[in-house]
Amino acid sequence: GSGKALRSLTDAAAPPASVVAAEGKRVRTMGLQARPDLNGLEGVCQGPAADPARLTVRLDDGQEIALKLGNLEFEAAPGRGDRARISGLQARPELNDLEGICQGPAADLTRLP
Questions:
Q1: What DSSP assignment string belongs to the chain?
Q2: Which residue in 17, 27, 37, 95 has its CB near the most CB atoms, within 10 A?
Q3: pLDDT tens for residues 37-65?
């Protein structure tokens, strides 16, 4: 592993799965029941997968897999200045696939502005 402390998005004020601010972040897989052989592997988040509830991750060994946010630990929670891509919004689908820069936590700490 990289030796850096990783923390799960569920441990911090995290955005819902519909707002992805993870592209390019180092991740470690965890909690996989169907593929426990993949637990503890590290890689880089490539962005949203075809299934909007999942992220595509390129593992350090070259494999690409689609995982739920809850199965990933990130080096740092998304925050101010991080690139973000919106996906999976149902109430405002016209915003899906737009990119921007996170401005920091919103008043509702489950979302990022």
A1: ------EEGGGSS---TTEE--TT-EEEE---SS-GGGTT-EEEEEEE-SSTTEEEEEETTS-EEEEEGGGEEESS---TT-EEEE---SSSGGGTT-EEE--S--SSTT---
A2: 27
A3: 999 999 998 888 888 788 899 999 999 99
Contact between 41 and 60 under an 8 Å Cβ cutoff? The reply is: yes
- Global pTM reads 0.52
CA 31 vs CA 11, 12, 79: distances in Å:
14, 17, 24
Cβ proximity of 47 and 20 under 8 Å? yes
Contact present, 87 and 80 (Cβ < 8 Å): no
Cα dihedral: 111, 74, 44, 4 (round 10):
150
Residue 109, both tokens: 């700490």
Strand partners, 101: 83
